[in-house]
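<instruction>
Derive structure tokens from the sequence

<record> Sequence and structure tokens follow
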Amino acid sequence: MLNESVWDLIANRKDIDQRECFAEIRACSNLRNIFSISEMEYISLIFILLSGILGVILWIRVNLCRPRNFPPGPQWLPFVGNSPQIRREGRKLGGLHRVYEEWTKVYRSKVLGMKLGGNFYVVGSSYDIVREIHMREEFEGRPKNFFMRLRTMGSLRGITCVDGAMWAEHRAFAVKHLRNAGYGRQPMELMIAEEMDDLIKLIDSLREAEGTFWPGKYLPVSVLNVLWTFTAGRRLGRDDERIEKLLQLLQQRSRAFDMSGGVLSSMPWIRFFAPEWSGYNLIRRFNEELKNLLMETIERHHATYTEEKSSDDLIYAFIKEMKMQEDNDKTTFSDIQLTMVILDIFIAGSQTTSTTIDLALMALLLFPAMQEKIYREICENGRKSHGNLPFTEAYLMEVRRFFNVVPISGPRRATRETNLGGYTVPKDTTILINLHSVHMDVDFWGDPQVFRPERFLDDTGKICNVERLMPFGQGKRRCLGDTLARACIFTFFTGIVEKFKLSTGPQDEHPDVNLLPGITLSPKPYKVLFEKR
């Protein structure tokens, strides 16, 4: 019995071992199948990865290639183009206009070609090239990039940032209203004179209270009030918190960006990683502040509108046009468009005009003999007409030329493939205009680094060389507010010189002629001693 039990146990054990063995064999077979599938997937993965790497390499090679007959310029990098190089050189040389002029010498070309992010850019320098860009129809477009859309609250509106039929319609409307409101005539001059009188009173009170002070701190409000009166029919108080905030944002915006739109234009994706550094948050704050300021005024105009008021200011005139086009499904007249038109007027007019007046006053400290010559001319001939004050007019022209408040103008867009300076410009290329190269042309001016108003006077004492001065541009896209800007500069400047003698205080340093970079160049703060004449 015992032997049989032992043999039964041995037999059962053999069965168990055989079953386990067969199970292991089947498992190994399954593992081989699994391994076989994984190997195929691994090979496929390697193939896909290699294909992706090859695709990226080919894309980079294509991206690095210059278009056929594209203007010469520095080699760009994948994804970012020349953006890092331009920003680095701009900080070192003191502005993008100096970078472009340096590269013009390096590549021996008046037309430069580069890439910012994924967009082609062309920079035109010298009088002939700059004038050609201004006058040719295919260069009248505006870029349609992220920065331009962000500037106008997400869509291309206003006058400055649009082109085609919309630009033509709204520019014509603005010109018509400004003309009806007395633009370039006595009503405009009286409006500016009234604001100038207010500024004179402010300077008189400040000189008694503070002694020396920087006039550039107070000029923007005066200029903005002239624009605001045209726009909204009334002036804003100097102690208005909204106007102070708006001016602060305008100045920050000017210093944060260049005429190409800065890094936001070339690499808009960077706003997700560096919203503050890229200027994205600044533009959003600017838009919000502007919307709050303007919409309150626009809503008040809507509430008080009558057809009789339609010629009082720009907002009433715009509302009239909106009502006339209520049945037009394709109308471009809306509250948001009105907001953007006002923004264009503020940006184009307030910053550049107030800065030019500031620089004209600053130059009086640097060239006191010219100040006395201007004062004598005003005393002998009065301040009523530019034509009666040729040296004063030449002085103001030299301020615009020498300091180049807007060294790079534009940006423009090539509406079709075309040629410039013998090179091919692809369609939708952004065009930047180097006005600094025209105003500092050694071949024409001889001594452009010297401040010399007489260069704008001929042998008979009359104004000359006007065509070589382009602070407001040329052609159809010439600055809409050039007449108003020139009138503000002339009236404010001559009014101040007639009432006060300007000098540097005994404890103050002379002003620095090296300006702060940005969309517009601006002086570093300086102090003036105003002595009543």
User: Anything to note?
Assistant: The chain has 18 helices and nine strands. The mean pLDDT is 84. The longest helix spans residues 2-64.
